[in-house]
Amino acid sequence: MPRRRWELRDRIARLDPERDHLEIYQLSAGREFPWDYTRALEFALFRTYCVPSISALLAATGEFRDRPQRRYDDTSLLMAEIAAHGYDSPRGREALKVVNRAHGRFAISDDDMRYVLSTFIYDPLDWLDKYGWRPPHDHERLAAFHYYREVGRRMGIRDIPAGFAEFRAFKQRYERERFVFTETNRQVGEYTVGLFAAWFPAVLRPAVRLAVRGMLDEPMLRAFGFQPAPRWVGALGHLGLRARALALRFFPPRRASVLGVSPRNRTYPGYPTGYRPADLGAPPPAADFPAEHLRHP
Predict the structure, then answer these.
(1) How far apart are CA 43 and CA 127, in angstroms?
(2) What tens digit of pLDDT does each residue of 69-100 get?
(3) Residue 294, strand partner residues
(4) Please, where are the H alpha helices in 132-182?
(5) Phi, psi of 294 (to 5 degrees)
(6) Domain coordinates in residue numbering, the chain
(7) Are 295 and 106 in contact (CB under 8 A)?
(8) CB 248 within 8 A of CB 128
(9) Which pTM does this prediction carry?
(10) Percent of the chain beyond pLDDT 90?
(11) Distance separating alpha carbons of residues 45 and 43, to the nearest angstrom
(12) Residue 285, φ and ψ in degrees, nearest 5
């Protein structure tokens, strides 16, 4: 493998994972593993829909039924804005304001907020351990934790665990206790699988649906009420992703970050040109929205 391939990892190794967490996260998510982070964060969000309290709220909004692509694009672009520009930059603060306004309308428990935040840290790291062209450096692991802890603090999420291992233990315990099948889990899960399939030509969509099921672990399959895919589907997907990782070891390092750049965005063509973070996000809930899901003063 060309020595040049390791230059960003070596740069990351010289940085401090707590003090320099934003720079490390930008290098990791924007230059070393951009495709992997995108896929892993898609599955991280998908994973949160296994929690009945989360899926019930999402089902009540109707957004996943009526506008799944827009909801996906809003979430991915807002999080990319915060990462690309920094949570204390003007665009980062504007994106956080949109996120906080959206969450502030609804009755969301602190535990659910902490859990969703935890998936953004650990699911990408677990993905990279399996499918990255190299394993994450310890500084990348800790930087992801410190980065999202700061983002969570600015989102008003209380009692975020103070340590990397402690927060992972919270996530694992939460999934053991809260991953339970409900009909809203199944509904939101099916809308999401349908969204993934819609990105491909119609002739390939049944295969994509099967492939997505092949990537889900047993707790997720149970919580969604999905039938498992044949074992060969998961094995084939694993081999394909490992082959991709092996090939990428011989690619030169990416010279420019792709964070906050979305030329193939389906809802906002050409983003970020002509758009601001304030242009993103779902509309307020309708007047007849179920009161039990609304946050009351």
Answers:
(1) 10
(2) 999 999 999 999 999 999 999 999 999 999 99
(3) 106
(4) 138-154, 164-178
(5) -95, 145
(6) 3-280
(7) yes
(8) no
(9) 0.94
(10) 86
(11) 5
(12) -65, 150
* Nearest Cα residue to 43 out of 226, 218, 193, 232: 193
What are the structure tokens assigned to 105, written together? 């309308």
> Six-digit token pair at 240?
């394909």
Segment 133-177, tens digit of pLDDT: 999 999 999 999 999 999 999 999 999 999 999 999 999 999 999
- The size of the chain, in residues, is 297
What is the residue type of 240? G
Residue given tokens 């996906």 in the structure block: 72
Q: Would you state the structure tokens that stand for residue 197, as one six-digit string?
A: 């399939």
Angle, alpha carbons 188-189-195 (nearest 5°): 90
Q: 26-36: per-residue pLDDT in tens?
A: 999 999 999 99
**C-beta of residue 76 within 8 angstroms of C-beta of residue 195:** no
Residue found under tokens 């980062």 = 92
In the chain, what is the straight-line distance between the N-terminal and C-terminal CA atoms, in Å?
59
Tokens at residue 183, please? 């009909």
The neighbour count for residue 6, using CB atoms within 10 Å, is 14
Tell the residue number behind the tokens 């008003």, with chain if given: 156
